[in-house]
Amino acid sequence: MEIKRNTDSRNTAVNARSGFTLVEMVISILVLGFVLISVAGIFALFQKGSVQSGEYSLAQQNARIAVDFITGDLRQAGAQTDYYRGQRPIVHAGPYQIAFNADLDNGETIDGNPPLTALSTAVSPNSVPLSGAPIYTPAADYDSDAETVVFTLDSTHDGIIGGADRGDDPEETPLNRNLFVLKKAVYGYAVSGGNEMRENDLALLRGPNLSPTWTIPEPLFQYYYDHDDDPATNDRLWGDGNGNGRLDDAEILAVAAMPQNLLGTIRKVRITAISESEKYDSKYETNGGFLGVTMNSEVFVRNMSTSSSTIRGKVYHDADSDGVMDTGETGLPAVEVRLAGQNRSVFTDNFGAFYFALPAGAYSIQEVDPPGYSSTTANLVSLNLASGQA
User: Which ranges of 109-248 would DSSP assign to H, the alpha helix?
Assistant: First the structure.
C-alpha cells in the first residue's frame, strides 16, 4: 500500500512562522537601544566616579604632604638658636605664612648644598624675603647654626600674598583659581660668603579667597598665645575677637600677622591644610564647584621661653676701664648675675652673655664681681619690662 504525505501545507506554515515581523524588529531595536543607553549610563557613572576618586586622592595627597612637612619642621622651631642674643624661634606669624629659626640641616650637606647658619646682618641682602617687603630682619649677628625657615604661599617673594602669587607656577592651572603652591624657603648664610635662599615646592593648597565662592576657608596657620603670662589661664587664639575659641568668617577675612611683641608668647600653632580638586563639579557648587579635602595638625612650640619677655646682657673685660665695650674686649664666662629680691641667679656663658625669661614687670639686675675684678659700670641696674619686650 502506498501512503502519500502532503507536506506542502506544513512547509507553508513553517515558512509563515520563520523571521521577524516589522513590529517585532522595531521592538527589538528599542529594547536594544534601552539596554545600550543603560550600559552607557552605568559606564559614564563609573567613569565619573573614577574621576572624582582620582580628584579626591590627589587633593588628599596634597593636604597630607603639606601637613607632614610643616608639622615635622615646625616642631624643631628654636633648635640651636642663639637665645642669649635674642634669636627667637618664631619670627613671623601670618595666616598664610610662618617663619621660624631652627637648625634643620644639622650642619650637614644636603643634596649637594652646604649647611647654612644664621643670616648675616653684615651681608646685603639680609632680610626675609631677600627682596620686597621684609617679614623678618635679624636684629644682630647671631652665633647660631639656626637658619630661617619659611612656609608660605608667597611665590613672588615680595612678602605679600595676593593675586600675583596665582598662576605663576606651572602647577597652578587656570581650572581652580583657589589653589596656590605651598613653598618651603630656607634662608641663611653660606660658606660661599653670602646670604642665600633655597626653595622647594611642596603642594597645591587652598589660599585666601580670590575667586567667588560660598565658603570662606580657615587660614593655613592659626596661633594660640599666652596673653597674660599666667599659666593657669587658657591661651588665646589670635584674631578671635569675640572669644568663642574659633575664627568666624568675618574674623578670618580680617586676621593679619601677629605683631612682633607677641611672637614670644606663641604656645601652639594650628595647621589647616585644605586642598581641592582642579575640575569643576556642580555637586560642590557651595564651594565654588570644587571638591575639598581638609587635614589638621597642632604643634606645641617646645623651644619657646615660658614667659613673654626677656632680659639679656653681657659681662666683659673692660680693658681700658672706659665703661664701654670696645672692639677686642672679650666676655667673661661663669660670672654670677642675680635677679635682686627674688633669690634667682644665672651665670654667663663662654662669651659672657646672660639671659632671663620673665613676665612683664619691674626688676633689678645685679652683677657679682668675680675675684680680681671691679666694675667700671653700675653693678645694680633697674628696669621696667613690658610684655613681649626683649
Answer: none
